[in-house]
User: What shape does this take?
Amino acid sequence: MNKKITASLLLAMTLFLVYYSGNIFAAQWEDIEVYPSENLTEIKMLSDYYDGLKDTPMDTEIYVFKGDKEGASFLLLGGTHNNEPSGYLTAIVMLENLDVDAGTIYVIPFANKSGITHTDPQEASPLGFTIETQSGERYFKFGSRATNPIHQWPDPDVYIHASSGQKLSGSETRNLNRGYPGREDGTLTEKACLGIAEFIRQENITMTLDLHEASPEYPVINAMVAHEKSMDIAALASINMQLDGVNIALEPSPTNLHGLTHRELGDYTDTLPFLTETANPSQGRLRGATNAELALTGIDKIYEKAYDAGALFVNFDETGHPIRQRVGRHIKAIDAIIQSYNEMYPDNKLEYKNIPTYDEMMENDLGAYLK
Amino acid sequence: MTLVYRLIIAILIFFITLDMFEEKSFKNQLNCVFVLVPLILRVLMIK
Assistant: This one.
């Protein structure tokens, strides 16, 4: 066939593929619907605290639950890394059920709002997954660890953390958890970090918990990481979790690793920062087929073999690490931190209800607590 | 800076499309399709 005719046909095919795949990618830009509990006080935007985020893809919702009585305040950050679904799912369970009696709880389900609009290239991530809930099947997107490159591009060769001079791989410039405390003249990701830090400062938030997941071969897993000023509360919380049968390691926030919530929010604001990690094989390097089932069940035969070979930092058997276990662990940690704070500061208690316990989550599964 | 990169990609798309029309081998023409799709998605800031 004449080369120009072939080229014309292939150009048409190119445009069709762009149209077809473009629609799939654009569908990822739609927000995940959440249904706040009737006890919601108000919804604010991060740009209310730092207007540099207004009308940007990083502006994100803050769900505010204020009790009738005065008390401490608590910020829950989900979706810092949107390929770690138990983070944002825990935040969504909280905001769809929460009732605060004393103090204030703030929930940001998608701290990196841009990160939930795409998936990481070359990871074969599923686009989303479905959970059976009280009202039927509900679809949740699967996201990326980083800001979408269509929102912040190009990456530098080397990412230099402004306040410390720390050098990391260039793609870390889009990792929200390497950009704190943020800066006004920084990238979009750094501006989001600044927005969160400003929000914490302006609302004088007592405690901040950043929810994460980690691959089973990563040493900081099923763990709580605490800044030195949070360590007393974290120690008591981890002991109480262990006494209740939920094993959790306690790690100090390294002083020489910069840009993370547990380091920089502790150094640059008055909040007591914590970070918790659960096990997520769908983000690991040793995993088998990457699909929605892996994200939800955490069952993976290759990881079972890796555990038998002594290569993992978490137990791994045929039951995997289902999402109800991972969300349950985060919820347990939230409660343990708050109760430990209340024990140490009884004149400034934070009191809430209507959130399932770890045992209830394991028995009834995640969908029972999603609308 | 992003505009500069998009301009570079737009120029690349132009020349790869020209190549596709000049190329005699069907296999190489098909390769141009696989190169063009992600580049067009990026210049349009879809992916």
Q: What stands out?
A: Residues 2-22 of chain B form the longest helix (21 residues).
